[in-house]
Amino acid sequence: MIINKFFYIAIFSLLICTNIFANDLTAIITDPISGTILAEDSTITISGTVTGDIFSNYEMHFVTGNNFSWSNQGISIFNVFATTENGILGTWDTTSLNLTSWKLRLTVYANDQTKKIYYVTNVVDTTSPAISQVTFNNLSTGDKFWVKNGDGLQLFADISDDYLIATENLWVDFSSFGGSKYSLPSTWETSPTGVASWLITTNIETNGVISLNIFIQDFGNNYVSINLVTTADYSLPSIDVFVDNIPLFSGDFLQKEITISAYVTDNYDIESFSLYFYNNDSLISTTSNHSGVTLSLFIKDLDNSRQYKVVAVASDLAGNIITENFTKVAVVEDFILTEVLPAPNPFNPNNELLHIGYKVSIPGIVKLYLHSITGERVYTEKQESHINNNGYNEFVWDGRNQYGKLVPNGFYFGVIVAEDNLGTKKKELIKIAVLK
């Protein structure tokens, strides 16, 4: 499914969350309660509940005033195990602290180190934070509608609240982009209103619509999240190139007049597609098609004393680029049989097939004769001109003789005889080892 560019980022939801993390991980401080003015030089009993099947451990920290250097000095953890009932979590020695302005933080960790944070503060905050003016930039391509593997992304969001928001209370789930589920902002100054930003290099391993989620938690334990989506394209385009309707390979033979056709496929639309024909490094013909999938070049008066090169380049909407090079393609007037090669060799007919590849410069009739080491013919095959095109071809042998039985172990000799329509013949000899 192709996502329309004009829907680059769709905001699906803006909701107040009461539990961002796993449902079976819960934590709450019941005493002291928000709004309490605590006495200096006293010991405060911290009570609450921590529970969940995935619970690992918890920590207690505090700050005073507008200081955001969280400290655990003076706090003794009462119990490191989960409790399903309200109980003592720890004690807090408040000696020499100005507790007219304070915040207490309970951080609970799951087995995978996912964490849930609960705050109490002398300020009672019942207003949820807000997220607005979200901007999602692709720093690698500048395209705002697509992402691919390795792109650098930057996310901006305007954050506002009645009170200060700590950096640790802003995070983005970048897991669909190959990043962290708990990515803190690269810039944020804890002010009640401002712009937070995140940077990430993508490590995408999927195609299609992917999402990220921005989360905010204030000191009143009010949650807000926002979900944004874009389209990821992990895969490169694919290009097929043909000469006179025959697949092209590097080193192939060409006629003096040819038609080169190129076709590109992709999961989504193509941004650009180009086809080039070179005489060595000199470009002699080219054609392009933006958003198209088919290209064609007609070339004539090719010289058999030169070597040519065909290059096809395609780019998709996400900026994935593929280049196919076909080098040392040559014009040949004479009938030539080359590159005769059996593989695998040795060959086990019990679990594999033998491929005997070869190239001919002009279509013709090609025959394969296989003989035992004593000279007995064990197999014959012929390929006619309508099957055997110029360029790369191959015979496939399953190791059976002309009666359908597997040949015994040993060495066999193969003779390939190629003949063009003028009666010119070429012959090549190969040696094959059968080992079962």
Describe the structure using short key phrases.
Immunoglobulin-like; 31 strands; 0% helix
Taking the alpha carbons of the first and last residues, their distance comes to: 49 Å
Helix and strand composition category: mainly beta
The gyration radius over C-alpha positions equals 36 Å
Q: What is the level 1 CATH name of the largest domain?
A: Mainly Beta
What do you see in this structure?
This protein has strands at 10-15, 26-31, 43-51, 55-64, 75-77, 83-93, 102-110, 115-121, 130-138, 146-147, 152-160, 170-173, 193-201, 208-217, 223-232, 238-243, 246-247, 253-254, 258-265, 270-279, 282-288, 294-299, 307-316, 321-331, 337-343, 354-360, 365-372, 377-383, 391-397, 410-419, 425-434. The protein has 4 domains: 5-9 and 128-216; 26-121, Immunoglobulin-like (Sandwich); 238-331, Macroglobulin (MG2) domain (Immunoglobulin-like); 337-434, Immunoglobulin-like (Sandwich). 0% of the residues lie in helices and 53% in strands. A hairpin with a 5-residue loop joins strand 30 (410-419) and strand 31. The chain is elongated and about 110 Å long.
Would you summarize the structure shown here?
The protein is built from no helices and 31 strands. With 436 residues, it is mainly beta.
List the helices and strands and how they pair.
Blueprint: E1 10-15, E2 26-31, E3 43-51, E4 55-64, E5 75-77, E6 83-93, E7 102-110, E8 115-121, E9 130-138, E10 146-147, E11 152-160, E12 170-173, E13 193-201, E14 208-217, E15 223-232, E16 238-243, E17 246-247, E18 253-254, E19 258-265, E20 270-279, E21 282-288, E22 294-299, E23 307-316, E24 321-331, E25 337-343, E26 354-360, E27 365-372, E28 377-383, E29 391-397, E30 410-419, E31 425-434
